[in-house]
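Quick question, first post here. What does this chain look like in 3D?
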Amino acid sequence: MGCTLIVGDVHGCAGELGSLLDALAPGTDDRVLFVGDLVSRGPDSRGVLQLYREVKGQAVLGNHEARLLQARRARVEGHRRPRLAPPDYALLHQLSDADWALLSELPLWWQLPEHDACIVHAGVLPDVPLAEQDPWTLTHIRSLDAAGQASERHDQEPWAARYRSGPHIIFGHNSRVGLQLQPRATGLDTGCVYGGRLSALVLAAGQQVPADPEQRRALVHSVPAARRYYAGKSSP
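> Answer (accepted):
Ran it through. Tokens below.
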């Protein structure tokens, strides 16, 4: 077993993903994993999926994949589809059957016992076992409300600040905060599609995620976005 590379939210930024993969140069024994939101909002979602296949990537389901799948089901079944941004609406007509099959098979979490870690897209509700987490929480949570319940809002306490026990959670989804180096959680959404950076955490074979934030920061590699691709807000 080689290294484990865990890539943050790509959002259709195929050029930046190609640059990051070129810089990291994963070998045949290395694994390339993704925190979800491979597609949507950026310029080349199909290009991202092609690179994903080339490196034999593995990913968890992001909220954008979930929304696209919901919209496609609604169209097929003749129901009202959820509202989509124009780039996402275009994807309904651009993705191939193979692309839809790939997205539909993405799991809600990916366990990495050799690293005492777990990948989810958005996060978890602290003190709730992984198998009991609500799918909405895993794909949408950003913070905890006053009652300690899952929330998408940006102006409340990040869930990861209160997560203290269990496997180290590696996640994305919260570009407004950027790189998060919490005691038992690492957030990798550094806002590439909004003109930020595309980041990846690289762990050696069997390496535990360092508890020390600066040691962990040294394991995060990133490339800058070529430009801001999406002018809307960085949510939902």
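Residues 4-224 form a domain with the Purple Acid Phosphatase; chain A, domain 2 fold (CATH 3.60.21.10).
The chain has one domain: 4-224.
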